[in-house]
């Protein structure tokens, strides 16, 4: 696989060209590209072009949403190929983006990687209230909970979620891991989470560590 294929895919994500991302991803898969490399060196590399431009005010919300949608089209194609790649551990992880927060690209990636590690993942989506997390832990008898937040305002809702899990008497039953750009290990310690992960691969390792 030529490196330029990955760079081209990244450019298509940056351009928000969903149809071309879909086509390019499929063609790379047909030519034997590694699905994990397609994610990291193509799809996410495209988002790495977008992020600083959005931050600098050179790109606006609708454009970034088109990039996210384009990235999602590629993800849909690689997802079935990486699911259950490793031996199943048949443990359940409930995951979601906390209340008030609509960012889900990173969370979706964590879901995919956890699934590829053989976990049973219950994805609650975005803007998930503390009560909904508690309900899902009970309903699915989860061993691990993952909380995602991308905003400095919504990261505070992680604490509210952990507090309600404790109030419901479930805190001893579940391990809580948190992630997202504004959070850190320090913040995890502060709000009483069991761990912080900088990326999806680390999340898989941490979940495995929790369950051993
Ligand atoms: C894409 C994006 C959007 C898209 C989201 C589309 C979608 N479906 O997710 C749209 C355009 C909708 C958007 C909207 C907004 N956004 Co925005 N967005 C971004 C952007 C550019 C990229 C985020 C991203 O997807 N990164 C790629 C993924 C792969 O990385 P990640 O999310 O960090 O995830 C990885 C790790 O953090 C970790 N991880 C993530 N979650 C979890 C969970 C667990 C359990 C674990 C273990 C690990 C883990 O693993 C992931 C994979 O490796 C960031 C900039 C940035 N640098 O982060 C701004 C950014 C987060 N947004 C920002 C802002 C301000 C907003 C808006 C308020 C803008 C507005 N005025 O409307 C709204 C808020 C909407 C809302 N209520 O949520 C700010 C936040 C500033 C702050 N300090 O709070 C940022 C930092 C940009 C900036 N500097 O201005 N945004």
Concise description?
It contains nine helices and five strands, in the order ααααβαβαβαβαβα. The chain has helices at residues 3-14, 18-30, 35-55, 61-82, 105-116, 130-140, 156-167, 185-191, 200-211; strands at residues 92-97, 120-123, 144-148, 175-179, 195-196.
> Structurally, how many domains make up the residues?
2
What would you call the structural class? alpha/beta
Question: Given the structure, what is the number of helices?
Answer: 9
Subunit organisation of the chains = single chain
Helix content: 55-70%
Rg of Cα set:
17 Å
User: What is the tally of beta strands?
Assistant: 5
Q: Would you identify the regions where 5 or more consecutive residues have pLDDT less than 50?
A: none
**What gap, in angstroms, lies between the N and C termini?**
37 Å
- Which percent range describes the beta-strand content? 5-15%
CATH architecture of the largest domain: 3-Layer(aba) Sandwich
Order of helices and strands: HHHHEHEHEHEHEH
Main sheet record: 5 strands, parallel
Under CATH, the homologous superfamily of the largest domain reads Cobalamin-binding domain
Tell me the overall shape: globular
What does this structure look like?
With 212 residues, this protein is α/β, with parallel strands linked by helices. The protein has 2 domains: 80 residues, Methyltransferase, Methionine Synthase (B12-binding Domains), Chain A, domain 1 (Orthogonal Bundle), CATH 1.10.1240.10; 120 residues, Rossmann fold. Helices cover 58% and strands 10% of the residues. The protein contains 9 helices and 5 strands, in the order ααααβαβαβαβαβα. It has a 5-stranded parallel sheet with strand order 2-1-3-4-5, with helices on both faces. β1, α5 and β2 form a beta-alpha-beta unit. α2 runs parallel beside α4 and α3 packs antiparallel against α4. The longest helix has 22 residues. The radius of gyration is 17 Å and the shape is globular. The chain starts with a helix and ends with a helix. The structure holds cobalamin (B12). The site of cobalamin has 37 residues, from α3, α4, α5, β3 and β4.
């Amino acid at each position: 696989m030529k490196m330029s294929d990955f760079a081209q895919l990244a450019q298509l994500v940056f351009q928000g060209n969903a149809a071309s991302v879909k086509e390019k991803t499929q063609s790379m898969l047909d030519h034997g590209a590694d699905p994990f490399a397609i994610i990291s060196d193509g799809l996410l590399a495209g988002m790495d072009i977008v992020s600083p431009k959005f931050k600098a005010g050179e790109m606006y919300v609708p454009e970034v949403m088109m990039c996210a949608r384009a990235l999602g089209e590629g993800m849909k194609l690689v997802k079935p190929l990486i699911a259950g790649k490793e031996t199943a551990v048949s443990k359940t992880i409930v995951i979601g983006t906390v209340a008030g927060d609509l960012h889900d690209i990173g969370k979706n990636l964590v879901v995919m990687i956890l699934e590829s590690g053989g976990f049973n993942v219950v994805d609650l989506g975005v803007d998930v209230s503390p009560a909904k997390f508690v309900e899902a832990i009970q309903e699915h008898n989860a061993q691990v909970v993952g909380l995602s937040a991308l905003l400095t305002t919504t990261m505070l809702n992680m604490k509210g979620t952990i507090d309600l899990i404790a109030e419901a008497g479930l805190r001893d039953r579940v391990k809580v891991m948190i992630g997202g750009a504004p959070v850190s290990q320090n913040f995890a310690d502060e709000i009483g989470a069991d761990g912080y992960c900088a990326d999806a691969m680390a999340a898989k390792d941490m979940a495995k560590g929790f369950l051993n």
